Predict the 3D structure of the following.
Amino acid sequence: MQQYNDYRKKQGEEIIIKTKEVEQLNDSLTQRKKAKEVLISDEKNQKDQIESDKKNKESLVSKIKKQEQKYKSDLKKKIREEKRIADRIDKLIRAAIARANKGKKRTSKKSSGLILNKAEETLRASFEQNKGKLPWPVNGLITRKFGIQPHPTFSGIKINSAGLHIVTKPNTDAQSIFNGKVLALQTQSGGKKSVLVQHGSYISSYNNLENVYVKKGDVVKTGDKVGKVFTDKVSGKTKLFFVLFKNTTKLNPSQWIRNN
């Protein structure tokens, strides 16, 4: 009987141990199940977040494309307007040269452009001697160079600039780059004005002016103020459009003014 009791007692202790092991195993399986459920939940949240980010990105790309199309459309309008201004300046140059030459005789049938007297020939030669040393018409930063160039932001769009676009400070006055005579004045679209100064065979053109301080026929010297540069009320930019000609041929002004 004693042996039987000891055996039953031992069995009971083993049952208790096995029961605890089973309980621990159940606890471990429950924890694993919960951890798996958490992982599944996290994975679902991540997928939802990725899907949300994807939709937001698609929406943002769509908005950017719409804005880009609008910017491109606005840019093309500005390019067309600048071309119209350049064409009007060309027309003004030809008309001014024709008026200046009226009543004068050419010494050679091969020559064209302005017919110069002795003083104007001397001025032309002096202007040429100062190539690369002429002062800037305003102190500022060149934001668009001369000639055909790709647009800095939009691919596939090329710009053909007749001169230099120079951004400067508000209330800045444009100054004559050399001695000369005011050949012509012109009012552009929006009331903006242009001043053309003759330096022998060369003509400097100061465009996008708000006010002018000179009149046709005035003699000016290097550094004389010819007009106040226009400040755009929307963008806040003050920009001079500076063009240089030899008779009717456009030149690269960067090759003539100082390298700041």
